[in-house]
Design goal:
Helices cover about 35% and strands about 20% of the residues. The chain is of the alpha+beta class. Strands 2-1-3 form a 3-stranded antiparallel beta sheet.
């Protein structure tokens, strides 16, 4: 949540998703598939609120060039 709030307070509205980085043996296929996607702040917060314990979900502000 701190990454999302910090990014939002610095003007970012979109974030890149990092998830499922433990690979197919330890991560769900849907989580591996969403890794690398770009989502809105609102969608990132929803994903964060719904994550389970030991989840590897994380975000970084997305910068478009």
């Amino acid at each position: 949540i701190s990454t999302l709030e910090n990014g939002r307070s610095n003007g970012f509205s979109r974030f890149i998703v990092y998830d499922g980085r433990l690979g197919p043996d330890r991560s769900e296929p849907a989580h591996i598939a969403r890794s690398g996607s770009i989502v809105s702040y609102e969608d990132a917060m929803t994903m964060t609120i719904n994550m389970r314990p030991n989840c590897t979900l994380s975000f970084a502000p997305h910068v478009e060039f």
